[in-house]
Amino acid sequence: MLVIIFKHALLKCQDEQNTFTLQCKLLMSFQIDLLWFYMLHSIMIKPNGKSKKHTRSVIGPILLSIIVFIIFSLGFFPIVLAGKLLLYFLAFDKSWHFLLLPFIIYLGVVILIISEISISGLIIKLFNIKYKPGTYEYSFGDRNTFKWIIVCSLYTPCRKIIEIFPVGAMKNIYYKLLGMKIGENTLVGGVIKDPCITEFGDNVTMGEYAIIYGHIQDYSKGTITIGMIKIGNNCVIGAGAIIMPGATLQDNVVLAAGALVTQNQILEEGKTYAGIPAKEIIMTSNT
């Protein structure tokens, strides 16, 4: 098949006289035809088993690049439109106009941040791009892993922005767009690695620098393990605490600062935990 594509590309360029042009067109034609071959192969043929995974592994990185490029490019449209509108009112032909530049740049950054966060979240919500708990092959060939890679590629840059710039209530709105369940009167501080498999109850407080992991990658086995995280009502998660995949904090649990909740560990209702790994501590009062 590749030989046929190569010959087809060569015939396209046989009338060219310039050698350099011939070589460039030959290479471009070959790449385009090769890409079309893989795309048509994946659409027209329904391979099974290893063949199906191999097809996804080849097309996956290309598709991911296209998705990320399009979505983050869409995020620039509001700032471009705002700039166009600004130039309609301000021609910058007077010196005092330039005094407004610092304020204009700041507003531009705010608009860009809001648009990037909103558009990426809406796309994930609209197309229901969510992954499920379980252990999967860590490759583009696995459908669930591919969804995780897409979400991470879109969410991670926005998460970094949220960590740097205060966005207020929009933070919880963004998490909900990604599929996270958040109760009433809840403060989500720290870092949420996997919003779509994380649940927070009512009156929960998560301290700064606390991290909740919903996944573990094992490169030696080539797998990724994803586990649901459930935080009950009236829980307190101390600053710097770490919660691993599959963990559950029942209602009224207090987790001390710097504690580590291990994979699939259950913290029982109304108790206080501290240490590495997290263990129950009994609070005593001197009378």
Distance between the termini: 86 Å
Helix and strand run = HHHHHEHHEEEEEEEEEEEEEEEE
CATH class type of the largest domain: Mainly Beta
Principal-axes geometry comes out as flat
Q: Under the CATH scheme, which architecture of the largest domain would be assigned?
A: 3 Solenoid
Number of strands: 17
Helix content: 40-55%
Average pLDDT score: 82
CATH topology-level name of the largest domain: UDP N-Acetylglucosamine Acyltransferase, domain 1
Radius of gyration: 26 Å
User: Beta-strand level of the residues, as a percent range?
Assistant: 15-25%
Structural class based on helices, strands and sheet pairing: alpha/beta
CATH superfamily of the largest domain: Hexapeptide repeat proteins
Sequence stretches where pLDDT stays below 50 over 5 or more residues: 1-47
Number of domains as seen in the coordinates = 2
Can you summarize the main beta sheet? 5 strands, parallel
Fold and architecture overview:
The protein has helices at 2-12, 19-44, 50-74, 77-89, 101-126, 143-164, 170-177; strands at 134-137, 181-182, 191-192, 198-200, 205-206, 211-212, 215-218, 223-226, 229-231, 236-237, 242-243, 248-249, 254-255, 260-261, 266-267, 272-274, 279-281. It has 287 residues and is α/β, with parallel strands linked by helices. It folds into two domains: 1-45, no CATH class; 46-280, UDP N-Acetylglucosamine Acyltransferase, domain 1, CATH 2.160.10. Helix 1 packs across helix 2, helix 2 packs across helix 3 and helix 5 packs antiparallel against helix 6. The chain is flat. It starts with a helix and ends in a 6-residue tail after the last strand.
